[in-house]
Amino acid sequence: MTIAQHKVVTIHYKVTDVDSGEVIDSSEGGAPMTYMHGAQNIIPGLEAALEGKSVGDEIEVTVAPADAYGEYSEERVQQVPIEAFQGVEKVEPGMAFTAQTEHGPVNLIVTEVEETMVTVDANHPLAGKALKFEVTIDSVRDASEEEVAHGHVHGEGGHHH
To answer: Which pTM does this prediction carry?
Structure first.
């Protein structure tokens, strides 16, 4: 069986930052990742590279930022008054918050704290990075009707309702 739309795929993987060589994530020593192909459950560049592959195939692919977590945008970095963090005892760089906006929730990372202003970054932490994936395909199966309807995998390795 080959990987295509509405197939449930289980992979072992290692993700490396192309520029630094740093391993960002890996399933080594842990559970593999299971996702539904074609349901936008993984980044587009990796999903495209896996299309048509079969159990046992091993691939290595470098995914450009545009096909991963997007380009880094300075427009997503803003300064907000420290008063916006009412109820937080001490705001420090590296803290993560979710802001409610007119476009829905946005994840923010605090990058700098001054006396009256806090700099926050809404870019994904991997935005602007080219990523190298080393993947071994462990299993491929048809998605159930319920999984297709919900847009994600159920049961082991997937979502539990």
So the answer is: 0.83
